[in-house]
């Protein structure tokens, strides 16, 4: 009864947004999980919504392996140790009718670089930006940064028209992007309306528009797909999948790993042999099957199938040799440990129960501490737990995993739940960070991963998948592991 009521409410929301849009069957109806938190400003995580709707664009985009590809910039080169020059696409028009110029690109990037707080892709990064002529932008970094083009792919560095930037640092993206869809309006945390932009520089949008509703309740989102009240649905809960036509459900590997972090500094897991005992006690396949109903991938490393190159790198002989240096497990009898996790992700408390059973079968005595994330994060970062289960994004806004690995596993890492510090690992991460994107960098990243795992700093459990719903009415919906794209100019109504 509850699901039916929610589906009916959602149907009413779509119908109420725009009478013309509701009657137009060439428009796409989308149910998204999280409402905007910051008025859709691109300087926040709301930027990813603008990107998923193709309302705003960046200078570059990332391909499948994380290499930078042209978007609003058609070419770039490193013209000095700390200097990059970008050539802009000509003939691009903002949604408000003004032209894309080097001056406005520089102004957009300067706003992001000077924001407080900064977009996270620019944490610790100082940029100098200037326009040279009508179509060239020069970006200077404080230190050499081989990853700069990838950084500029972050949706938080979207380029908007001057009309978007208001007094007091407020950014309003309505009618100010360059994508195939113009954000025509949005209603707080409830809905957004986008229309085809006929002046788009690329291939025109296939659909007349997109009508978005924000539906935090997973049961309601699933019901909307079943009843045809939504064409595209974000993040269907695992428990709802069995009630939906399998043809409408698509699983996308995410660059997110469910990991058991072990406290390497204090307590029982300061002993490498005890960490090894915990690692050997974990049965990943059981967790995937029982908690995720098989809708996740067993973790062989920190990096999963959303990064298609990771598995090939792990097949390298050097990687296998490093893992062979792991400590042998000790016998544990009655060793007491505290295991923490949080309730915000519904599966994690269930994962904690499964791991408690497996660890106690190996001889540990487990005490659980499960709270909301906002009430447990500080304790986790302070090393108050012997073990902590975290669902962690492994590639951040640059599409590159070095920042995540540095944050979680370097001596100076800001998110080092494992309290882990190892000079050899730090050196490997520094080497990976200094290499230009490409095969050599990927090999260096894999070498650092092998070292981290060889020390049992953490036990990767599984790689999550996002379950995306698509009605039979739509075609060419993007299934993006990085969750940057959803609607594209090709997405439309099926013939």
UniProtKB/TrEMBL annotation:
Signal peptide residue numbers: 1-21
Domain Solute-binding protein family: 68-414
Keywords recorded for this protein, A-Z: Signal
Signal is among the record's keywords: yes
InterPro entries in the cross-refs: Peptide/Ni-bd, SBP_5, SBP_5_dom
Pfam families: SBP_bac_5
Highest rank taxon of the organism: Bacteria
The protein's name in its UniProt record: Peptide/nickel transport system substrate-binding protein
Organism name: Paeniglutamicibacter sulfureus
């Amino acid at each position: 009864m509850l699901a039916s009521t929610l589906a009916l409410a959602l149907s009413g929301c779509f119908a109420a947004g725009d009478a013309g849009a509701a009657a137009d069957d060439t428009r796409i109806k989308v149910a998204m999980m999280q409402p905007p938190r910051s008025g859709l400003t691109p300087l926040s995580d709301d930027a990813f919504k603008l990107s998923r709707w193709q309302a705003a664009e960046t200078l570059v985009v990332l391909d499948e392996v994380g290499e930078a590809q042209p978007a609003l910039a058609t070419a770039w080169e490193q013209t000095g140790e700390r200097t990059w020059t970008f050539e802009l696409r000509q003939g691009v028009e903002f949604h408000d009718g003004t032209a894309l110029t080097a001056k406005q690109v520089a102004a957009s990037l300067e706003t992001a670089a000077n924001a407080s707080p900064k977009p996270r892709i620019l944490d610790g990064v100082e940029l100098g930006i200037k326009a040279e002529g009508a179509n060239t932008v020069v970006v200077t970094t404080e230190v050499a940064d081989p990853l700069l083009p990838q950084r500029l792919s972050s949706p938080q560095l979207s380029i908007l028209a001057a009309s978007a930037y208001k007094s007091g640092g407020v950014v309003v993206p309505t009618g100010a992007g360059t994508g195939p869809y113009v954000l025509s309006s949005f209603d707080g945390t409830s809905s957004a309306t986008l229309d085809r932009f006929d002046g788009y520089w690329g291939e025109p949008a296939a659909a007349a528009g997109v009508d978005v509703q924000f539906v935090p309740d997973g049961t309601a989102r699933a019901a909307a797909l079943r009843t045809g009240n939504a064409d595209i649905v974000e993040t269907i809960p695992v428990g709802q999948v069995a009630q939906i036509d399998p043809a409408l459900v698509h699983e996308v590997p995410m660059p997110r790993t469910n990991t058991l972090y072990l406290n390497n500094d204090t307590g029982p897991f300061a002993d490498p042999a005890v960490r090894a005992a915990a690692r050997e006690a974990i049965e990943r396949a059981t967790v995937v099957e029982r908690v995720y109903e098989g809708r996740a991938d067993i973790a062989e490393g920190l990096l999963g199938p959303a990064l298609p190159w990771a598995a090939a790198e792990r097949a390298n002989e050097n990687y296998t040799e490093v893992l062979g240096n792991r400590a042998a497990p000790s016998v544990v009898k009655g060793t007491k440990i505290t295991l923490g996790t949080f309730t915000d992700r519904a599966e994690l408390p269930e994962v904690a129960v499964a791991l408690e059973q497996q660890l106690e079968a190996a001889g540990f005595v487990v005490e659980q501490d499960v709270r909301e994330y906002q009430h447990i994060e500080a304790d986790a970062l302070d090393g108050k737990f012997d073990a902590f289960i975290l669902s962690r994004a492994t590639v951040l806004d640059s599409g590159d995993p070095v920042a995540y690995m540095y944050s979680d596993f370097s001596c100076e890492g800001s998110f080092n739940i494992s309290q882990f510090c190892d000079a050899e690992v730090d050196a490997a991460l520094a080497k990976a960070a200094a290499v230009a994107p490409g095969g050599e960098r990927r090999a260096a990243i894999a070498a650092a991963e092998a070292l981290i795992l060889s020390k049992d700093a953490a036990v990767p459990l599984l790689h999550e998948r996002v379950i995306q719903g698509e009605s039979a009415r739509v075609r060419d919906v993007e299934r993006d592991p990085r969750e940057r794209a959803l609607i594209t100019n090709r997405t439309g109504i099926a013939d």
